[in-house]
Amino acid sequence: MNTEQLMEYLPFIIPLIIVQFALLGYTLHHILTHENYKRGTRTIWLIVTIVLMEFVGPILYFVFGKEDA
Hints:
Layout: H1 3-33, H2 42-51, H3 56-65
Helix pairs in contact: 1-2, 1-3, 2-3
């Protein structure tokens, strides 16, 4: 991929990167500030969220780990 092609896709890539890191930050904040989880422990969810840090880890946490209060 050359520079011209990269510049063409940049307006689409930058918002996705911003949303990805915002979701990751919110997920990590939620994991670190809550004590109870539907499944797993804090350590497991931190590992899952960081290793699968694109959109998969945070989405898995909110679907399977976050306890509804």
